[in-house]
Design a protein that fits this description.
single chain; 176 residues; alpha/beta; 5-stranded parallel sheet; 15% strand
Length: 176
């Protein structure tokens, strides 16, 4: 009986990992939102967010989890952002150290900005956990458009992220 249960659990774990690795989230289409949120991390995220901001998909953008020593001028130069665009439309968030912190920082920012819909821009392999953490931190009624940045993650990266996703999912499922 215990062997059958453990075997079933293992099969579920393997099938879950296959789903996680093969069916990575995709980029979103041309849908407008109130804001763009970009957690720092893997390459391509910030350029994608800035391209969406410049094309008018949203009027403002939060970059969450920015290293504390980064100055806005350094960000402008690194990503080719004009001072005018920085002043009107880009907020750098320095409070987050991890994905859960990104979600908390985002929740605080959107409450201040009165955002009702946001486009989450992050790597395809990170999207499921980032949106799970974000959904948990946000009040009900906030629409999240998942906009994944395609990447070529290694098997070890997918394996690690799958387990982080499972852990986040279990923590969210626990009462309390």
């Amino acid at each position: 009986m215990i062997r059958r249960f453990l075997s079933s659990l293992f099969v579920l774990w393997v099938l879950g990992f296959l789903w996680f690795a093969v069916a990575l989230p995709q980029p979103a289409g041309k849908q407008k939102t109130d804001a763009i949120v970009v957690p720092t991390g893997a390459g391509g995220r910030i350029p994608r967010g800035l391209a969406l901001l410049r094309s008018g998909e949203a009027p403002k953008m939060l970059v969450t989890g920015v290293y504390s020593d980064v100055k806005p001028r350094e960000f402008e130069v690194e990503y080719g952002v004009s001072p005018e665009l920085m002043d009107c439309c880009v907020t750098l968030g320095f409070a987050a150290l991890d994905t859960r912190g990104n979600a908390r920082e985002t929740a605080e920012w959107i409450a201040e900005q009165k955002v009702r819909s946001l486009r989450l821009v992050t790597s395809d392999w990170h999207m499921r956990r980032a949106s799970l953490e974000l959904q948990s931190a946000l009040p009900d009624g906030i629409e999240i458009l998942r906009d994944a940045v395609p990447s070529k993650p290694s098997l070890s990266m997918l394996f690690l992220e799958y387990h982080k996703f499972l852990a986040a999912w279990v923590v969210q499922a626990l009462p309390g």
